[in-house]
Design goal:
It is built from 13 helices and 18 strands. By secondary structure, it is an alpha/beta fold. A hairpin with a 2-residue loop joins β17 and β18. It is globular.
Length: 480
C-alpha cells in the first residue's frame, strides 16, 4: 500500500497548524466546538471563518460600536463646550497670543447659540443639539481632546487609524479583527456616507490586516437597495446555482493557494465572494427601513441622516460589529464662514436622528452593549478666522481648524453617563485639564470593548503593531 510522500516542512508544524491540518481540519473544528462559538480561533488557513466571533481580553458590556463622524470639525464652543468668557472679550483680541492654527485668526468670537443645563447632571449643551441634550445623563462629554495638526487629512487618519501619515488599519478594522462579527451574512464593519469624506476609503482601510477586515462602504445618497449595494442580486442565476459556481471557484482557488503557500490576498478574495453570496439573503432586509413601524421612522425623521442612522441601528441589531456613520460628502462641518447659519443647519439635519438612536437603543435594551461615539477630527477656534484668498469668502464670521482643544462624547457600552471629562482654557482654545490625546481615546475605547490596547496586536514587517502604536493611556474616569 502506498504512503503519503514525506514532506520536511511537516516537521516544523506548530500544534495549532497540526490541529488545523489533521483530518482535513477536523481537529481545529472540534477544538472550536469545545471552546464555544464566542471563542473561535481565526488561525491562518483555518476552515473557520475569519469573521467568526472571538473573545476579547476580558468581559465587558460593549459588544458593538456606532461611530457618528461629524467630518469637517464641529465647533466645540458652539455645541458642547460653553465659553461665556468669549462674550466678555467679543470683538477684542484675547489676552496673550492666539495659538497657531492653519490660518490667521483675529478677535474673540462668542457663540451665536444659547447654552442651557440639562438632566440631573446639569451639563450645558447648545440649543442646536437640544434633542441630544435630553440624553445627557447617559453621555460622557470629553472637553479636553487634542490632536497633532490643524489639517483635515492627517487628523482624519489619526482619528480613524491612530496614525496621521503611514498606512495603518482603521479602528473599525481592528475591532473586526479582534472580535469578529456576530452575523456571518453581513460585513463586520460598515462605513456609511452620502458621498465620500476626504481621504475616502483610507478612513476605513484595513492596512496590513487581512483584507477581509476592510470596511464595507455604503453610499447612503441612494435609497434603492440595488443602488445602495451594487450587484446585491444576481438576476441570472438562482442561489443554488451560484452556490455550485462558488464551490467550484473555491476549489480552484484553494489548489492555487496550496501551490504558493499562505496568500492573504487570495484568502481575502475567497472570503469576499462568500460574503457577497451570503449577503443576498440578509442585506435586503437590514437596509430596508420600510420594514420599520411608522412611529419608529417618524422618531428618526426624514432625510439622509434619519435614514442612515436608523439603518445603523438595524445593522448592529443584526450583529454587525462596527458601523461608522459619516455626516456627508467632503467636510460639511468645515465652516470657515457663516458658522451661525451652517452649524445650525447641520445640527438640524442630525440632532433629532441621534437622539432617536439613543432612545431606540435604550428601549430595545441595546444601549448598554452598544458604544456610541460622536465627534469630528478636531474642533474650531474661539477666535474669528481672518479673510484668506482661496480659503473663505472673507465674511469674518467663521472659525478656523483647532487641534489644540475640542470635544467628543460617548454613550452606552459601559460609559459613565452624566459626566464631563476635562476642560479647555476659559476661551476654548487649548485643552488644559485632564488633556486627552486621540491615542488616549483609542486606548479607552478598546478598554470599553474588552481589550488591553497594548496586547491587541498584529505582526507586520517584523514588528507587532497596535492601534495606539507606542502611545495611549486608558482614561478610567470615563468607564462606569
Amino acid at each position: 500500500m502506498g504512503h503519503h510522500p514525506f514532506n520536511p516542512e511537516h516537521l516544523g508544524l506548530t500544534r495549532r497548524e497540526f490541529l488545523d491540518r489533521c483530518g482535513m481540519g477536523f481537529g481545529s473544528l472540534g477544538m472550536a466546538a469545545l471552546l464555544g462559538p464566542d471563542a473561535v480561533s481565526a488561525a491562518p488557513n483555518s476552515p473557520v471563518s475569519p469573521f467568526a466571533p472571538k473573545l476579547a481580553h476580558f468581559p465587558v458590556k460593549a459588544k458593538r460600536v456606532i461611530h457618528l463622524f461629524m467630518n469637517g470639525g464641529p465647533s466645540h464652543v458652539d455645541t458642547f463646550d460653553p465659553k461665556p468668557a468669549l462674550e466678555k472679550h467679543a470683538g477684542k483680541m484675547l489676552p496673550g497670543e492666539n495659538l497657531k492654527t492653519e490660518r490667521k485668526t483675529g478677535a474673540a468670537f462668542p457663540s451665536p447659540f444659547k447654552f442651557q443645563k440639562y438632566g440631573k447632571s446639569g451639563i450645558e449643551v447648545s440649543e442646536i443639539f437640544s434633542n441630544v441634550a435630553q440624553h445627557i445623563d447617559d453621555i460622557a462629554v470629553i472637553r479636553s481632546m487634542y490632536a497633532d495638526v490643524p489639517n483635515h487629512e492627517p487628523s482624519l487618519l489619526l482619528m480613524n487609524c491612530g496614525e496621521a501619515r503611514q498606512i495603518r488599519p482603521s479602528f473599525g478594522s481592528w475591532i473586526n479583527y479582534g472580535l469578529g462579527t456576530l452575523n456571518q451574512n453581513l460585513p463586520g464593519f460598515i462605513a456609511m456616507c452620502p458621498g465620500y469624506p476626504i481621504q475616502e476609503s483610507q478612513n476605513w482601510q484595513c492596512g496590513f490586516l487581512p483584507g477581509v477586515y476592510q470596511g464595507t462602504y455604503i453610499n447612503t445618497r441612494e435609497t434603492r437597495l440595488d443602488k445602495l449595494i451594487e450587484n446585491i442580486e444576481n438576476k441570472r442565476l438562482p442561489l443554488a446555482d451560484q452556490r455550485r459556481q462558488l464551490d467550484l471557484l473555491k476549489k480552484i482557488n484553494v489548489r492555487h493557494a496550496e501551490q504558493r503557500g499562505k496568500e492573504g490576498q487570495l484568502d481575502s478574495r475567497i472570503e469576499s465572494f462568500e460574503l457577497a453570496y451570503r449577503m443576498q439573503m440578509e442585506a435586503s432586509d437590514a437596509f430596508d427601513i420600510s420594514k420599520e413601524p411608522e412611529h419608529v421612522r417618524k422618531l428618526y425623521g426624514d432625510g439622509t441622516q434619519g435614514r442612515q442612522i436608523l439603518i445603523a441601528r438595524r445593522l448592529i441589531e443584526r450583529g454587525v460589529r462596527f458601523v461608522q456613520v459619516w455626516h456627508g460628502d467632503g467636510q460639511p462641518w468645515d465652516n470657515h464662514d457663516d458658522i451661525a447659519v451652517n452649524h445650525r443647519n447641520l445640527a438640524n439635519q442630525c440632532d433629532r436622528a441621534i437622539a432617536a438612536l439613543l432612545t431606540d437603543l435604550k428601549q430595545r435594551g441595546l444601549l448598554d452593549e452598544t458604544l456610541v461615539i460622536w465627534g469630528g477630527e478636531f474642533g474650531r477656534t474661539p477666535t474669528v478666522e481672518m479673510p484668506t484668498p482661496g480659503s473663505n469668502a472673507g465674511k469674518i464670521n467663521g472659525r478656523d481648524h483647532n487641534h489644540h482643544g475640542f470635544t467628543m462624547w460617548l454613550a452606552g457600552g459601559g460609559v459613565r453617563g452624566g459626566y464631563v471629562h476635562g476642560a479647555t482654557d476659559e476661551f476654548g482654545f487649548r485643552a488644559e485639564e485632564k488633556r486627552m490625546h486621540v491615542h488616549d481615546l483609542h486606548a479607552t475605547l478598546l478598554r470599553l470593548l474588552g481589550f488591553d490596547h497594548e496586547k491587541l496586536t498584529f505582526r507586520s514587517a517584523g514588528r507587532d503593531f497596535r492601534l495606539t502604536d507606542v502611545h495611549g493611556n486608558v482614561v478610567k474616569e470615563l468607564i462606569a
